[in-house]
Write a structure and sequence with these properties.
By secondary structure, this protein is of the alpha/beta class. It has two domains: 16-255, Type I PLP-dependent aspartate aminotransferase-like (Major domain) (Aspartate Aminotransferase, domain 2), CATH 3.40.640.10; 257-380, Aspartate Aminotransferase, domain 1 (Alpha-Beta Complex), CATH 3.90.1150.10. The chain is built from twelve helices and twelve strands. α1 (16-22) packs antiparallel against α7. The two termini are 30 Å apart. The structure holds pyridoxal-5'-phosphate (PLP). Residues 70-72, 100, 102, 147, 151, 176, 178-179, 199, 201-202, 210 line the site of pyridoxal-5'-phosphate. Pyridoxal-5'-phosphate (PLP) binds next to α3.
Length: 381
């Protein structure tokens, strides 16, 4: 029996082609890009080539791409960098209650420095109410940060409309696109996005590698001081192998995006329809249409989510109860509570996120496992 991995929203395996392209930069091409001899200097050019690839895919300028160590760092650097640089214009930030902890906790940090943050409650389908957003704008609002797609329930936010509203009021717009990139074609200029976060390990790239896109029009203060790398906006010796990895992973994702989505939709729709047919008393969380192709978040009434994950693990099935970042804690998901799911149903949620190595046979195996485990757990509840 081999592992059946249904937790691609938590992380993905590095694609073989990505790994191949990275390896020379651990072995012979290990030079420091700031060095003046050739094995160093040549890496400076490598970085520029990959920066260009990423800029082309996102639809921005080369000098608007900054390399970071993860999605969390991109979120921190953008929110703090924009907030502190624009404090003279105002101190109000709008975000949502269903953001990743990387955004929520950064906002809490900023509240300690005099910023006021509005946490919008989404509608019960997980989508932000645009009118509600507009109503909350005031003369001090400097930044709106709304995620592109949610990591737990997979819902996709109306990014275009939020971008338009932000432009109308002259407010900067950031989106945490960590779940979207690799699944959705994103064009930052068309969508009026001023800043965006992404993370390689969510789309078959290496862990510990992120990108922050920040429009050159946005006043932005660095939060990391040092040897002046990344135009002095994010110091630290460049992770050349990681940069190659995120560039290659994005290039692969971008060129396969249609067939990838088609495959994931097939698997997900089969999974949802089988669960509906075979297991009573369930609730599907998040909008059914506006959601990532690979995400299914279902609450199984009367089942403890933590126990369910452990039972699935015995059958070598990997899945998640809440978001991976809070899975160690017993608290019900803040996302599910925010969209009005009861405490009990929130604790009984199972997030399945499909990826490229999954197939229908594996989904059938998963369904059979659930048919066996769910009634057992319900009896012992
Ligand atoms: C995974 C994730 C992050 C954090 O990215 P890391 O690279 O793991 O730090 C941030 N936001 C969302 C929506 C995520 O899914």
């Amino acid at each position: 029996m081999s592992i059946k991995y249904f937790d691609h929203a938590a992380t993905t395996a590095v694609d073989e082609k990505v790994l191949e392209e990275m390896l020379p930069f651990f072995r012979e091409n290990y030079g420091n890009p700031s060095s003046l001899y050739s094995i160093g200097k040549s890496n400076k050019e490598i970085i520029n080539i990959y920066r260009m690839k990423i800029a082309n895919i996102l639809g921005c300028k080369v000098n608007e791409i900054y390399f970071t160590s993860c999605g969390t760092e991109s979120d921190n650097m953008i929110l703090k960098g924009i907030a502190f640089a624009n404090k003279n214009k105002g101190n109000h930030i709008i975000t949502s209650q269903i953001e990743h902890p990387a955004i929520l906790n950064t906002c809490k940090f900023l509240e300690n420095f005099g910023f006021k943050v509005t946490y919008l409650k989404p509608k019960s389908n997980g989508i932000i109410d645009i009118e509600e957003l507009e109503k909350n704008i005031n003369k001090n609002t400097i930044l709106i940060s709304i995620m592109y797609a949610n990591n737990e329930i997979g819902t996709i936010e109306p990014i275009n409309k939020i971008g338009e509203i932000a432009k109308k009021y002259g407010i900067y717009f950031h989106t945490d696109a960590v779940q979207a990139i690799g699944n959705i074609k994103v064009n930052v200029k068309q969508e009026k996005i001023d800043a965006l976060s992404m993370s390689a390990h969510k789309f078959y790239g290496p862990k510990g590698m992120g990108v922050a896109y920040i429009s050159e029009k946005v006043p932005f203060m660095r939060i990391q001081d040092g040897g002046h790398q990344e135009k002095d906006k994010r110091s630290g010796t460049e992770n050349v192998a990681g940069i190659v990895g995120i560039g290659k992973a994005l290039e692969l994702a971008d060129s396969n995006i249609e067939s990838y989505n088609k495959k994931l939709i097939q698997l997900r729709d089969f999974y949802i329809s089988e669960v509906r047919k075979k297991i009573p008393y369930i609730r599907i969380n998040g909008d059914l249409e506006k959601r990532l192709s690979g995400n299914a978040n279902i609450s199984f009434s009367g089942v403890d989510g933590g126990k369910l994950i452990k039972e699935l693990d015995k059958k070598e099935i990997c899945a998640s109860s809440g978001s991976a970042c809070s899975a160690g804690l017993l608290n019900p998901s803040h996302v599910l509570l925010s969209i009005g799911v009861s405490q009990n149903l929130a604790k009984s949620a199972l997030r399945i996120s499909f990826g490229k190595e999954n197939n229908i046979e594996e989904v059938k195996f998963l369904i059979e496992a659930l048919e066996e485990i769910i009634p057992k757990l319900r009896k012992s509840y």
